[in-house]
């Protein structure tokens, strides 16, 4: 089951200046004169402790060999290094949650179930049995279960301690790599810094390191429980370091393809290969599924790209959904005065382009990011036209789920949405004017836009800018069909709310693709407190399958070979 990692460097580039240190040992920067086999041999030396002694005896992989010939395979590759990927790496590294000796969960039925197997880690228990009957703000039962174990009664306003304690059991670790475009923390490093997080700081924390303990060492004054995004980003980066996970993380990596390899059933000596979808459909019974091939490149010092290729038994998608902002798909949306993100809007304000303008800014959307944009414009004395398609009384509006005392700024926006709506009778625009149940028909080159009400009434307004904040889609271009085939509706792009990846509720394995897992926003868990359940589900699944393989190996009378 185990082996290593193959980096294919057909295109050379400068190597990083600083050596990487792992477990107190320095990894060399390889010179261009070394063969791929020598590089691989050095990597095997480093990975051997984790992957077992049999790896060291594996044949070297030369530049000229076919990728499909290689038996070098990692048990898991995680794509995305945000909180989902970090938490999964933590658990795959051997950290196991147990019921604390003195802990009593406020849910008596759940506590009784936990007592039945107190000696076992949660990873080794029946998650479906434990999750039964629980309710929460996630549609994924394991997410609700893990959240209530980590934050009992959080939805009732309590800040109760976790009933779990964590043990590092290195013999349970599963070798893996986490690939990310930037530093550990993912999209948190790119978020607008002027806004508070929607969640409390302790809801953003990952297992084993209390956020309050960490943040108290970074700043003296802790006013309230909500924090800045850049603080969360620094916490996640520190978490990877302090938990000893750095050896599993690779930064500046960009994935270009993830494809399944197949083998011809009739030929035991045949090579694994990539089969076209059409050929596979015509001769489906002829091929058996093998491992995953992950291709991409890593940016190194000087900006050059070093291609790589990895093989994995399993792949976990933890990319989040912030890669591609959603578009209205209307005429003129490509004009330069139309923005699709808060950073773009913030940059326009900071540059002074919008200061002192009489014409309003159009903000489209009814979520929290749109509310942030309203606050940003309002605080900079920029008049706002706020357009959204829902009624202000719509119970699904996010503002109705937020307590007023904890989120006063968002309720200020919601109050304006309700009380300062446009009236055709007065035809007057104030500093803020809402347009409920309206949509944008088009943008014009003279910076005008046409709005239409639900009744069909059209109105034209002159703008200084437009900001479209109606959600985002993940970039799954490395998968076939852009990953659409994995969704509940295969004809639509994957999105957190409208079309999440369809998964098994307890293992997080994609329903339509074996050995491919998805977690976090991709499966509808947009809050950090719930995405941690995905790590539990995936780890439980891999551990269960590992035990089955070992059992079969013993039954067959295996010797020293690698199972």
Compose a concise summary of this entry.
The chain is an alpha/beta fold and 563 residues long.
Assembly state (oligomeric): single chain
What is the overall shape? globular
Mean pLDDT: 81
Unreliable segments of 5+ consecutive residues: 1-71
Main sheet makeup:
8 strands, mixed
Classify the helix fraction into a percent range: 10-25%
What Rg, in angstroms, do the CA atoms define? 26 Å
Any overview of this molecule?
- The chain has 563 residues and is an alpha/beta fold.
- It contains twelve helices and 22 strands.
- Strands 3, 6, 7, 8, 9, 10, 11 and 22 form an eight-stranded mixed beta sheet that branches. The protein has a five-stranded parallel beta sheet with strand order 13-20-14-15-16. Strands 17-18-19 form a three-stranded antiparallel beta sheet, with no helix packed on it.
- β1 and β2 form a beta hairpin.
Please give the structural blueprint:
Elements: E1 20-22, E2 25-27, H1 36-51, E3 74-79, H2 83-92, E4 95-99, H3 108-116, H4 127-131, H5 141-150, E5 164-168, E6 176-179, H6 211-216, H7 229-242, E7 249-250, E8 253-264, E9 273-274, H8 277-282, E10 287-299, E11 305-317, E12 324-325, E13 338-339, H9 342-350, E14 361-364, H10 368-379, E15 384-387, H11 408-419, E16 432-435, E17 438-443, E18 448-453, E19 458-462, E20 465-468, E21 472-473, E22 516-518, H12 528-555
Parallel strand pairs: 3-6, 3-11, 6-7, 11-22, 13-20, 14-15, 14-20, 15-16
Antiparallel strand pairs: 1-2, 4-5, 8-9, 8-10, 10-11, 12-21, 17-18, 18-19
Helix pairs in contact: 2-12, 5-12, 9-10, 10-11
Protein name: Oxidative stress induced growth inhibitor family member 2
Organism: Rattus norvegicus (Rat)
């Amino acid at each position: 089951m185990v082996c290593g990692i193959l980096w294919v460097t057909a295109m050379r580039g400068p190597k990083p200046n600083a050596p990487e240190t792992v477990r107190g040992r320095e990894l060399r920067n390889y010179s261009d004169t070394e063969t791929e086999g020598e590089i691989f041999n050095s990597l095997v030396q480093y990975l051997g402790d984790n992957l077992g002694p049999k790896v060291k005896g594996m044949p070297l992989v030369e530049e000229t060999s076919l990728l499909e010939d290689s038996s070098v395979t990692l048990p898991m590759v995680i794509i995305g290094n945000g909180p989902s990927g970090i938490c999964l790496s933590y658990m795959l590294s051997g950290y196991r949650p147990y019921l604390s000796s003195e802990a009593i969960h406020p849910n008596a039925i759940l506590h009784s179930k936990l007592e039945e197997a107190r000696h076992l880690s949660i990873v080794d228990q029946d998650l479906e049995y434990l999750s039964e009957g629980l309710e929460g703000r996630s549609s994924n039962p394991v997410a609700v279960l893990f959240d209530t174990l980590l934050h009992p009664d959080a939805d009732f306003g309590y800040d109760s301690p976790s009933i779990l304690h964590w043990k590092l059991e290195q013999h349970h670790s599963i070798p893996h790599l986490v690939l990310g475009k930037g530093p550990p923390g993912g999209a948190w490093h790119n978020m607008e810094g002027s806004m508070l997080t929607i969640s409390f700081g302790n809801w953003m924390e990952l297992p084993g390191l209390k956020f309050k303990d960490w943040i108290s060492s970074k700043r003296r004054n802790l006013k309230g429980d909500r924090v800045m995004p850049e603080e969360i980003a620094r916490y996640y980066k520190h978490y990877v370091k302090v938990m000893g996970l750095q050896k599993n993380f690779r930064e500046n990596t960009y994935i270009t393809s993830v494809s399944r390899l197949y083998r011809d059933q009739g030929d035991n000596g045949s090579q694994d290969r990539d089969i076209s979808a059409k050929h596979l459909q015509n001769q489906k019974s002829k091929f058996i599924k093998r491992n995953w091939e992950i291709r991409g490149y890593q940016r190194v010092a000087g900006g050059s790209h070093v291609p790589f290729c990895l093989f994995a038994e399993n792949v976990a998608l933890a990319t989040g959904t912030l890669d591609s902002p959603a578009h209205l798909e209307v005429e003129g949306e490509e004009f330069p005065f139309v923005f699709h993100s808060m950073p773009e809007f913030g940059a326009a304000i900071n540059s002074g382009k919008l200061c002192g303008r009489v014409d309003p800014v159009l903000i489209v959307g009814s979520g929290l990011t749109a509310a942030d944009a309203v606050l940003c414009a309002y605080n900079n004395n920029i008049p706002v036209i706020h357009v959204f398609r829902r009624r202000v009384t719509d119970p699904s509006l996010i503002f109705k789920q937020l307590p007023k005392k904890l989120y006063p700024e968002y309720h200020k926006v919601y109050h304006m949405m309700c009380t300062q709506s446009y009236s055709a009778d007065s035809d007057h625009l104030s500093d803020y004017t809402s347009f409920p149940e309206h949509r944008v028909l088009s943008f014009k080159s003279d910076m005008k836009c046409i709005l239409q009400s639900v009744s069909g009434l059209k109105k034209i307004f002159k703008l200084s800018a437009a900001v479209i904040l109606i959600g985002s889609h993940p970039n799954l271009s490395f998968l076939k069909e852009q990953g659409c085939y994995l969704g509940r509706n295969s004809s639509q792009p994957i999105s957190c709310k409208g079309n999440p990846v369809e998964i098994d509720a307890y293992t997080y394995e994609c329903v339509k693709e074996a050995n491919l897992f998805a977690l976090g926003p991709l499966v509808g868990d947009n809050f950090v407190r719930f995405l941690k359940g995905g790590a539990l589900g995936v780890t439980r699944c891999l551990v269960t399958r590992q035990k089955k393989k070992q059992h079969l190996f013993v039954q067959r009378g295996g010797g020293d070979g690698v199972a």
